[in-house]
Model the fold of this input.
Amino acid sequence: MAVDVLLGLQWGDEGKGKIVDFLAPQYPIIARFQGGPNAGHTLVVDGKKIVLHTVPSGILYSEIVNLIGNGVVIDPATLKKEIESLSAYDIDLQRQLRIAEKAHLILPSHRLLDAASEHAKGAGKIGSTLRGIGPTYMDKTGRNGIRVGDIMTSSFMATYKDLKAKHMRLLSLYPEFSIEEDEVKKAEEAFFEGIEFIRRLSIVNGEQFLHNALEKGMDVLAEGAQGTLLDIEYGSYPFVTSSNTISAAACTGLGISPQNIREVIGITKAYCTRVGSGPFPSELHGEEGESLREKGGEFGATTGRPRRCGWIDLPLLNYAIKINGVTQIAMTKVDVLEDMESVSYADSYSVNGAVIEGIPFDLEDERIVVNYNNVSGWSATKDGSIHPNLQAFIETVERKLSVPIRYLSNGPEREKLNILGG
Ligand code: GDP
Ligand code: IMO
Ligand code: MG
Done:
């Protein structure tokens, strides 16, 4: 039938995993379309926290098929570990998981290149998760990559050795970056164990699998990773990831057409966070930022790094909404803002006293002034209803973004969610 796309509107970690897990029962198929193990999508079910990196967030439902799409980059070692960490959930991998044969593989030497490149950048580093994402997508666009389907061919080992040798030559350009031979050997062993593991999974032609399902009248939820402001094209370049994270990437990453797309569900926190380097105009420094980080538990799901925190930024959200064609918003973490005297939001940007339209080329341009506005704070209500001040905040955001907030999340658990507007 149709594909609904769910993606992040900020710098990642908006709560995509939680919302996918909530919406999943409406869909027979959940498909990840880009990114790789740089992602960390958290689900909290029956009091237990599960963090997924490559596996789509519908994996806990036995009746749903989860596709790791063509646009995803896969680290076989981390995928194996991730799936093993789900052993308590009695998952039938053959039935519940498919891997697209055109998805590219992250080699141990891709990770080394990622680390060497970040090391060489020094203070100007991107703040990468060091999962090998950038070098793998570089090899994909450079037409040197190795795909999941290649592991079934007799030339796989030769191709692997060639690409590794090329990476080693590139690494020699970073003489100050030391490589521990022992570590490389261990990583390579884990990689090949991961390859053997993947061989036993259900590897499919991803686009054909989806075309057949759509023709049979099935709906698909396409799960994005990262967020719009980390998009390689439209994010805060160069402080971005190496894939397109926007709704258009659901088409390229899954092999579906724009006509297949129905709803685009954009996720935003009620405030904003970022992990890694790069501009963040509405960032709160000092105690205010610290208090949001503590209250929101803002530490990376993949790397454990503290997330930078700030107010929700409506000009940036407007930008993200237009790029993605967002039709519905899910706002998460409204509970984290409870019991504050007032809640601020970035309302506009101005330069030389004049409000500017759109987003400046350089978000770090010193002439930019962020104009804030605020609403009175709210607290939790005894009956779970929406506090009038929270309602006023929701209405303000909806008016300024011209898109309805359809879901309101007020806790990490699956059931902590209000559906708004009927
Ligand atoms: P994702 O990468 O977009 O899936 O988000 P992450 O899982 O990296 O980070 C979101 C964090 O917020 C996780 O720890 C979630 O369990 C948590 N979370 C999601 N929604 C809510 C919410 O409404 N309230 C609170 N307090 N936590 C939430
Ligand atoms: P999810 O799907 C938040 C950030 C990194 C770094 C930049 C580049 O959980 O929302 P990379 O490893 O891709 O080379 O890192 O992007 N980043 C994320 N930040 N959530 C993510 O994923 C991220 N994936 C990458 O911190 O700044
Ligand atoms: Mg995350």
